[in-house]
Amino acid sequence: MLIELNKEIMQSLTKTESEIIKFINDNEERMSELSIVDIAFDTYSSPATVSRAIRKCGVNGFNELRYRITSKNNDDEIHNMGEIINKSFVEARQVVDRISITNVLNIINCLANSKRIYVLARGLTEYVGEEFTLKLQLLGCNAIFIDDPNIMQIKTKSLRSDEVVFIFSLNGETSELIESAKNTNLCGAKVITCCCSENSPLLEHSHYNLIGFKHNHVSIKKFEVSSRVSLFMMSRIIIDYMAANIELEK
């Protein structure tokens, strides 16, 4: 039996939820091939109901259930896919657990009161910075993205106190980003940092920061291409909250 049931759990389940758990246990061999949408379709329910039923049984969501299945599957392809999917789940969950709501609100308030926002990033993290900048612009913010190391170091030497420098960095160790943060402080402007290292030198020069989670898994080891899921998630949280507030003000 994939999901163990006891009297207490059974009493907590609704009729639909009981049918969902029965379906899962009766189709254990097929579960590695099914998504939460497939299960909802076959049980005439919804993905939210499937997720709720699973959690009531002490399983921390559908991904954990799928990982249990794939981890003991004899098919190497299915097993490996389960491991890969779980890495993304772990990374996303760690980000949510680590983020301080107070820090997020302080950052949003700082952005809202700034005259201009300079978004800095280097390497593959530039994709995060570019998307974040575009969304800030769509929300009506005066935002500029800079990825050139020389330009960012020169520009941050002549900032106004009502301007903000927002830095995205995976490890927080890029020398030109650190130098730009130092320059910004000397100008009296504020620095906001999103990175995935609690030991980043950038944090010493930041007024506000969000620290995500960097999984030790590297997809393309030859080039040390690490996931930017954490950075994308943190940028999304900020943008989504700002957008929600704008809608409320209309």
Automatic annotation (TrEMBL):
SUPFAM superfamilies: Homeodomain-like, SIS domain. PANTHER family: GLUCOKINASE, RPIR-FAMILY TRANSCRIPTIONAL REGULATOR. Gene3D superfamilies: Glucose-6-phosphate isomerase like protein, domain 1, Winged helix-like DNA-binding domain superfamily/Winged helix DNA-binding domain. CDD domains: SIS_RpiR. Residues 107-249 form the SIS domain. It comes from the Bacteria. Keywords: DNA-binding, Transcription, Transcription regulation. Pfam families: HTH_6, SIS. This is MurR/RpiR family transcriptional regulator. Signal peptide: none annotated. It comes from Terrisporobacter mayombei. Residues 1-76 form the HTH rpiR-type domain.
